[in-house]
Amino acid sequence: MSAEKRKALGKGLSALLNDSENVLPNKKNAPAQPAEVNKLGSVNDIKIEQVEVNPFQPRTEFEEQALAELSDSIKKQGLIQPITVRRVAAGKYQLISGERRLRASKLAGLTEVPAYIRTANDQQMLEMALIENIQRENLNAIEVALSFQRMIDECSLKQEELGDRVSKNRSTVTNYLRLLKLPPSIQASLRDGEITMGHAKALIGIEDAAQQLFFHNYIIQHDLSVRKTEEMVRDMQRNPVKKEGKQPEPLSYQVQKVQDELATKFSTQVKLKMNSQGKGTIEIPFLSEDDLNRILEMLDW
C-alpha cells in the first residue's frame, strides 16, 4: 500500500470516502464499464438485494431492541446515514460499513438504501470495517481490543501504525491489547459491564491468573470501586505470600478445573492439594470476619 493511501487511512473513514484518486477509475486505461461505475464516490440508491455482507465485519452481535428502534426510526424518517459499499460486479455490491443500518432497513421493509459506492481491495475493506467499528460510541472495551488485535494480525500493523490509524496514542492501544491477556471469564465480565476498564487495568497488574480470578470475584461480590480495587492490589503486591519449602507438584487438568470451579463458587482463592493416593486437603481463605460468615452461609453452617 502506498504512503499516500496509508495517509488517507490514517485520517479515518471520512478521508477514505473522499479520496477521489482511490475512488475514481483511470479513464485513459479503464475498459468500457456499465454506466453505474460512473457513480463511484457519490451517494446512490441501490437495491438491498444487491448488497452482500462484508466478510471482514468484526462485529457479530447486534442488540435486537436497538435494531428494532432504529428500524422504527427508518420507517418514519428514512435511512439518513448512507451505508458504504464496493462494487464487485455489475449490479452487485459488498458492504464495507453500516451493517446495523442495512439490517434495520431490511426490518423496516425498505427495498433500496442510499449508499456510497467506492472501490477497495481486501486490505482496505478490512481496515475500513475495523476503523468504522472502533469509532462506534457504544463499543465495549473487549470489542475495541479485539478490533485492535485484528488490525495488528491481519493488516500487519505495528502498534504505532495502529495508533495513527485510529487516532490513539501507543499507551492507549497497549492498555486495550493487554485486556486480552486476562482470563476469558474476566474478559466476559468486562464485556457485559460487570466490571469497568479501570477494574480490568488493576487486575492486569496481578501476574497470577488464579489471583486475578479471586480479586475479580471479590470486586463483584463486594461492589468495589476502581480506587478500592487498586488499593487492594497494591497491598497484595507490597505483601506477597512467601512460598516456603518444597513446592507441590503441578495439579492435573481435572484437579485444576475443580479448584477453579471452587474458587469461582466461593469467590476466593481456593487451594486444592492431592497426593498420588488421592488424599488431600481443600483450603478456603477469607479476607475478613464478614467474608468468613459469607462462606459459612454458603456451606449451610
Automatic annotation (TrEMBL):
It comes from Mucilaginibacter hurinus. Belongs to the ParB family. It comes from the Bacteria. Residues 44-134 form the ParB-like N-terminal domain. GO terms for biological process: chromosome segregation; positive regulation of sporulation resulting in formation of a cellular spore. This is Chromosome partitioning protein ParB. GO terms for molecular function: DNA binding. Keywords: Chromosome partition, DNA-binding. InterPro entries: Chromosome_partition/occlusion, HTH_ParB/Spo0J, ParB/RepB/Spo0J, ParB/Sulfiredoxin_sf, ParB_dimer_C, ParB_N. GO terms for cellular component: chromosome.
